[in-house]
Amino acid sequence: MFRFTLLAVAIAVALWTPTSVATQPKKAELRAGAFAMDITPEKFPISVNGGMADRKATSANDPLHARCLVLDDGTTKLAIVVVDSCMIPRQIIEDAKARAAKLTGIPPANILISATHTHSAPTVAGVFQSEPDEAYIKFLTRKIADGIEKAHGKLAPAKCAWGVAEEPKQVFNRRWKMKDGVKNLDPFGGDTDKVKMNPPRMSANLVEPAGPIDPRVTVLSLRTADDKPMALFANYSLHYVGDMPALSADYFGVFADLVGAKLKAGKDFMGMLSNGTSGDVNNINFRAAALKLKPGERSRTVADAVATAAVKAIDKADHTNRVRLKRASMELELGVRKPTAADVKRAEGILDKAKGRELKGLEEIYARETVLLAKYPDKVKVQIQVLLIDECAIVAIPCEVFAEIGISIKKNSVFKTTCVVSLANGYNGYLPTPAQHMLGGYETWRARSSYLAVNSSVEIEKAANTLLKDLLVK
Known about the structure:
Blueprint: H1 2-23, E1 28-29, E2 31-38, E3 46-48, E4 55-57, E5 65-72, E6 77-83, H2 90-104, E7 111-115, H3 134-153, E8 156-166, E9 172-173, E10 175-178, E11 195-197, E12 206-209, E13 216-224, E14 229-236, H4 250-262, E15 270-275, E16 281-282, H5 297-313, E17 322-323, E18 325-335, H6 341-353, H7 361-373, E19 379-389, E20 392-396, E21 400-401, H8 403-412, E22 417-421, E23 430-431, H9 434-439, H10 456-473
Parallel strand pairs: 6-7, 14-15, 20-22, 21-23
Antiparallel strand pairs: 1-17, 2-5, 2-8, 3-4, 5-6, 8-13, 9-16, 10-11, 10-12, 13-14, 18-19, 19-20
Helix pairs in contact: 2-3, 4-5, 6-7, 8-10
């Protein structure tokens, strides 16, 4: 009887084991392809995003690129694109994805397209007094899709590894709590803000930063089958630097060049740096005096530090050619902080007085934003996307996300490594937390650059966490 029981158990295990293993997702051999598509405009002058007043660029200091990476595990293909642009509206991105899908067969839902947030790129999103250049929009849309096709055409056996390092010296929270009694005026006639964005350096009125910074440099390294550097995708939470003349990819472009040199990579190597959660973070130490630097010097310093950290992150990483690729997304409907009828009436009165000339000062500029925002719908659709590459995840959010939100998503993630890419798959303005909204400040001022409902970060973070958990069990 005892022998019969053992035999029965053995047969049951033998019958059960193959079925159980077969139901587990198998890791397949990875293929990857990378291509940096030049998106520098062909015609000048051209409007430049990033300022309160419009400005025109007449030349490019350095090339702008859409850096495209395609991954294939034999079952699923993913594309990741990082574009040297300030912000890209969703319609442009969806048009580029649709074109790329026709060219490559990669489903639009499997493509992540983000903007670096350089403040020295052609205008493709109407914000403040800069309006899109329609010819460049068509040019950019085509170039992004063609870049994905080029990367897809270069698919070849590859290995990948993830790594994380830190570079805390190049990031500072730019929102500061000020001493009691200091009035922080807003453009709507109020003085109740409790924080000031970019306050005077070394001011005696500075108390403390209103939020944290995220110093992490998260890296996905791709190598060829014979272990030569193929591409490197990195993520760092720094807004931009802004010390380059004319059109420029800012420190993001310098990073792409430097990281390849540090890896001693060949000419076909492609580096790419995505913008993390930097909605309230820049490169200015407000406790110290400004240094006298030449144009581009600060961008190079920052890029060199981040590139050094990126190389360190994957220095001893084990690259594998066996990976799983997955993706998931969720569409949210979020409220819009629309102006009241009284707000609009006040704004129209301000604009009437400024008729016939360029708008000057924050009050006039935000009056125009108020009138334009009044025409927005009560709710907007916002897409949250997650890509899973091996056991590590990329969360994509179409906003200028505050650092503490990214830190929270990483902390609560079910995966070993997670990074958050801002300004991805669209543009829905700043994303402060409800607590930061209560503090006020530039990033919360109602405009086309900041209009989502106060609780939007809570909804977005919840969606990101849900998607991450769903991918764990799929």
